[in-house]
Amino acid sequence: MFAIERIRIIKNYLYKKKKVFVNELSEMLNVSEVTIRRDLEKLEDEGFLIRTHGGAVLKKQKKSADVYNDYNSIVNVDSQYAVLYDEIANIAIHIIENGDIIMLTNGTINYHIAKKLDKKKNITVLTNDLLISIEASSSSSNKVVLLGGNVDFDSKATYGALTALNIQKFFVNKLFIEVDGIDIETGLSVSNMDKANLINSILPNSNEKIILCLGSNFNKTAFYNISSIDMADKIVTNPDIDDFYKKFLFDNRIQLYTSITAVERGNIE
Q: Which of 35, 44, 49 shows the shortest CA–CA distance to 5?
């Protein structure tokens, strides 16, 4: 079993049980206790858990009336989807190189990417998402530019004519677009008209277009179309997408990144 698959299972188990034991996980996943301890150490480094004698406990999440503390609670993301979003973000962060100028459109996956930007240096981040801007600016070596405009309370993002005007002044070498649907016929789509307009405004001023989408949202169409699929240079998603789409992307020379293809050397037990 790949390490990233074990990590996903351990995270889901911890969300439900709040604590785990090394010997229990070793038997359940059919790997050595040494391997499990290594997985738990990695998750502790990510701030997900606290290791204890013989196991680990889920680290308490921040609780505050401040809406900026927990994006998942704002958008009502349950634990299962939180793991999937974080899984995609773990892949996408490897696409970002030190010194990159990137844009993160508003969304939960991009928020998870922003939380991992402290691993990178000298990144310039353009975003219309208030929560992403706060999270990305936590690293002193990175620069964050928040687009002006009208603030949408539900999404905690800026939109409107002023946002569209501001965005035309910038160029990014990597544009991370979070979409709600990918379909062969209808292409890439999102559920918000303002978000669709924002994305279309920055497309001409971006070099590499990287699409982020849950695997479950393939073969689905959201309300507002952005573009055909061939606009994408890369697509990052979960591994459970239909083989039909894998072949389609390969035939159209669109690079596909999933947790399986992103496994690093040494991650196989």
A: 35
Domains of the chain: 3-58 (1.10.10.10), 71-257 (3.40.50.1360)
Extract long-range pairs of 154-162: CB within 8 Å, 24+ residues apart: 155/106, 155/129, 155/192, 155/195, 156/67, 156/74, 156/106, 156/129, 156/130, 156/131, 157/106, 157/128, 157/129, 157/130, 157/195, 158/128, 158/130, 159/128, 159/194, 159/195, 159/197, 159/198, 160/194
pLDDT for residue 77 is more than 90: no
- pTM of the predicted structure, to 2 decimals: 0.75
Angstrom distance (rounded) from CA 63 to CA 65: 7
Largest Cα–Cα separation, the chain: 57
List pLDDT tens digits, range 113-135: 999 999 899 999 999 999 999 99
CA distance 172 to 183: 26
Query: How far, in Å, CA of 174 to CA of 207, rounded?
Result: 6
DSSP 3-state helix, strand, coil percentages of the chain (rounded to 5)?
40, 25, 35
Interval 145-166: pLDDT, tens: 999 999 988 888 999 989 988 9
Main-chain dihedrals φ then ψ at residue 175, nearest 5 degrees: -110, 115
- Two structure tokens written together for 202: 């920055």
Element (H, E) at 152: strand 150-152
For residue 89 the two structure tokens come to 């973000």
Question: H helices within the chain, ranges in order?
Answer: 3-17, 22-29, 33-45, 71-74, 79-92, 108-115, 130-136, 161-167, 193-202, 243-251
